[in-house]
Write a structure and sequence with these properties.
- This protein is an alpha/beta fold.
- The chain is built from 14 helices and 22 strands.
- The strands form five sheets. Strands 1, 2, 3, 4, 5, 6 and 17 form a seven-stranded mixed β-sheet that branches. The protein has a five-stranded parallel β-sheet with strand order 8-15-9-10-11.
- β21 and β22 form a beta hairpin.
- The N and C termini lie far apart (76 Å).
Length: 472
């Protein structure tokens, strides 16, 4: 059996694994990155990137259909879905190829194969050319997660996970989405814009459970305006094919109903890929949901073994995985690094987009912090008006005593981009005055953030303030 000796072995080549591999190599560590499927992981291949390509294409198509409001008339706009898929796949190919090039350019080796722990310092990798024994001083587990399957809904031709939804051959006439979380609403909305009749089923009492209800309300209203049917407090009971169609059985408010569909998209969450890699053999501690337990330096309970990304627990976000990757690389290189952040932004690419960062009103209340809330509607933004996207608002949470900005939620145009400034401010422990005294270019969407922060203390200029709350 071939043997390789390295300073660090990274199991998984997703946004956590490949970033760890690149950074370790930059820090002078002999590094091997292993993945059983593809470079770039779920995010680049069947997640973040292809889904956003599909979402943007659907949004562009919808805007084209309604551009007559701006005096731009497009006759008989239609979607060539096969060409759309080719375009999307081309983006994925470029990005995954770029990652492979970066690994090589930085001096990290890549090996395609399935890794299994033999001991804490030895991992066997099954490749197409036979097994390879890797001896490593440090091992990083970055194996990611996979969609949760629910009983009675086996993934296949008509029952989709997000992976099948992104690789569909055509737009289904009728689509049932089970799970009103961010993946379900993102893909469900995209398919609705492309022409599908979409029904969303959510077991909880609101869509996007855990997200500020005020932000969700804007998206829910937009879904309704687009003809998307939503059932909350509803549970999926089973699926069968009948007469060339899919039949989804549901419990809607205690009443059983059957919905006919051409496809059903199951998006009820993701589970960590912690099985079948030998973690039990070396004694790595897991929580009751299968996530690997780690400390602030991403160390497991087994010396020399680390875990990052989805497998290391919530939030299951690509950018969190990449940040953890850089932290763990620094730790292995002997630098004083740790996962010590004030805020991790979260973005939901619905219509309109939702983005949040920092503390929520509910969290502040739990901690007994007295807060001020500031808002600014995009309907009052000159820039939003010029783009024709005025739904939504910016909502800011401010410590009432110190005026430190604690959290920011945005629902509206380009929320995914606007949250960057918000996160930077929270991470730097910015105060109201820091945002207010920073000149924002006009006319731009970020002005809404500045105005919302000022509104929290009664100083907004372009929206009517409540009672004067500013310190005198």
């Amino acid at each position: 059996m071939e043997t390789k000796k390295v300073d660090a072995l990274v199991i998984g080549a997703g946004p956590g694994g490949y970033v760890a591999g690149i950074r370790l190599a930059q820090l002078g560590k002999k590094t091997l990155v292993v993945d059983k499927q593809y470079v770039g992981g779920v995010c680049l291949n069947v997640g973040c990137i292809p889904s956003k390509a599909l979402i943007n294409a659907a949004k562009t198509f919808e805007k084209t259909k309604h551009s007559d409001k701006m005096g731009i008339v497009v006759e008989s706009a239609h979607v060539d879905f096969a060409k759309l898929q080719d375009w999307k796949n081309g983006i994925v190919k470029k990005l995954t190829g770029g990652v492979a090039t970066l690994l090589k350019a930085n001096g990290a080796e890549y090996l395609a194969g399935t890794a299994t722990f033999k001991s804490a310092r030895e991992v066997e990798v099954q490749t197409d050319k036979g097994p390879v024994l890797v001896q490593a001083d440090n091992v990083i587990i970055a194996t990611g997660s996979r969609p949760i399957q629910i009983p009675g809904f086996p993934f296949g031709n008509r029952v989709w996970s997000s992976t099948e939804a992104l690789d569909a051959a055509n737009v289904p006439e009728k689509l049932v989405v089970i799970g009103g979380g961010y993946i379900g609403l993102e893909l469900g909305s995209a398919y609705a814009k492309l022409g599908a009749d979409v029904t969303v089923v959510e077991a909880a009492g609101q869509l996007l459970p855990g997200v500020d209800p005020e932000l969700v309300a804007v998206v829910a209203k937009k879904l309704q305006s687009k003809g998307i049917k939503v059932h909350t407090n509803a549970k999926a009971l089973g699926f069968e094919e009948k007469g060339g169609k899919g039949q989804v059985k549901l419990d809607v408010g205690g009443k059983q109903e059957t919905f006919e569909c051409d496809a059903v998209l199951v998006t009820v969450g993701r589970r960590p890929n912690s099985e079948n890699i030998g973690l039990e053999k070396i004694g790595v501690a897991l929580d009751n949901r299968g996530f690997v337990k780690v400390d602030k330096q991403l160390r497991t309970n087994v010396p020399g073994v680390f875990a990052i990304g989805d497998i290391a627990g919530q939030p299951m976000l690509a950018h969190k995985a990449s940040f953890e990757a850089e932290v763990v690389a620094e730790v292995i290189a002997g630098k004083p690094a740790a996962m010590d952040v004030r805020a991790i932004p979260a973005v939901i690419f619905t219509d309109p987009e939702i983005a949040t960062s920092g503390m929520t009103p509910a969290e502040a209340q739990e901690k007994g912090i007295q807060t001020l809330v500031g808002k600014f509607p995009f309907a009052a933004s000159g820039r939003a008006m010029t783009t024709g996207e005025t739904d939504g608002f910016v909502k800011v949470l401010v410590d009432k005593t110190s005026h430190q900005v604690l959290g920011i939620g945005i629902v509206g145009p380009q929320a995914s981009d606007l949250i960057a400034e918000a996160t930077l401010g929270i991470e730097m422990a910015a105060f109201v005055e820091d945002f207010a005294l920073t000149i924002h270019a006009h006319p731009t969407l970020p002005e809404a953030l500045m105005e919302a922060v000022k509104n929290a203390v009664g100083e907004a200029v372009h929206v009517v303030n409540g009672p004067a709350l500013a310190k005198k």
